[in-house]
Amino acid sequence: MRSAINGLSARLGKDRSLVQGPGGNVSWKDGVNLHVKASGTWLADAMERDIFVSLSLPDLHERMDRGEYAFTIDRESKPSLRPSIETALHAVLPHRVVAHVHPVDVIARSVRRGAQVTFARLLEGLDWIWIDYAKPGEPLAKAMRTAANDMGSVPAVWVLANHGLVVGADDPAQAMRLVDEICVRVAISPRAAAFGPQLDALQPWLEAGYRLPQDPVAHAPAFDALASELARRHWVMYPDQAVVLGACGVFDRGDGPDPRQLHPVAPVVVVPGAGVVLAEGANPACEAMLVCYCEVLLRCDTADDIVSLTPEEINEIVHWDAEAFRRQLVR
Questions:
Q1: Counting runs of H as helices and runs of E as strands, what totals does the chain give?
Q2: What would the pLDDT profile of 120-132 be if each residue is shown by its tens digit?
Q3: In the chain, what is the straight-line distance between the N-terminal and C-terminal CA atoms, in Å?
Q4: Is residue 191 part of a domain?
Q5: Per-residue pLDDT tens for 79-97?
Q6: Taking the CA atoms of the chain, what radius of gyration do you get in angstroms?
Q7: Are 105 and 254 found together in one domain?
Q8: Domain count, the chain
Q9: Torsion sign, CA atoms 118, 121, 126, 127
Q10: From CA 200, how far away is CA 254, in angstroms rounded?
Q11: Which residues 6+ apart lie within 8 Å of 137 measured at CB?
């Protein structure tokens, strides 16, 4: 099982349309323990390093029954690792294998008004359920647990508004098949993306400690009119974006603050008609999340039916201790 789990994790983690940077998580149960990805680690690394931690499954259930949803592990065995902030989510589902991913097509559809109706049509015939947006961690796990209790059963597919997808399966191969099928069903063709940065216009930012992203798609908010409008009006559409990219985007109109005053406070700056720049110290996780966000923007056909996170919801995430810990670990 462990070898197959590592293979599933690596395949999911290396597909940027499914998982971005340290996002997403995978778990499996052996009847006694829950083995779950550690916070801040990358699924893509599963074949090269041990990214999982183990917790007693009966203990997890007992603690959740008492209202406890924050879990730790024996620090002597793996002192630098902490269980995923979504550990309770994995414990709620009885399936032997659980995969939680952030497909760009699922996100792009789940942030729209009336998304539940759309998914009902696209996922017809699957054992699935829609969960309204809930803060990751305890609120999300409680919402899923309540939904399962109300239904009297535990669906295999969970679509999380403004967040992503969770699937439960008997084995890693079945989990992968479910993810693949759902992504095919909900696929959206993105608008064409061929964006070239204008280096002369970006020079003040490059001299102030910013750099160009490696992927041209990251320049979408600077050149695609709808992507620009979406980014201005709906900068944070899902939790990981707030954690990695910050609570708001910065748009330079040529009359704003000196670039040197913003670096490194603003990790991402959009310069309309010129390109997008990243703070020089921005890690690969930051660029991966920026590319994911732009892929979502290019799959939206209007800015008027988008439901982004509220300032209160963003504040809860940005100032959450568990996410602060994860930010320290990501590279």
A1: 15, 11
A2: 999 999 999 999 9
A3: 28
A4: no
A5: 567 899 999 999 999 999 9
A6: 20
A7: no
A8: 2
A9: positive
A10: 13
A11: 69, 70, 85, 86, 88, 320, 322
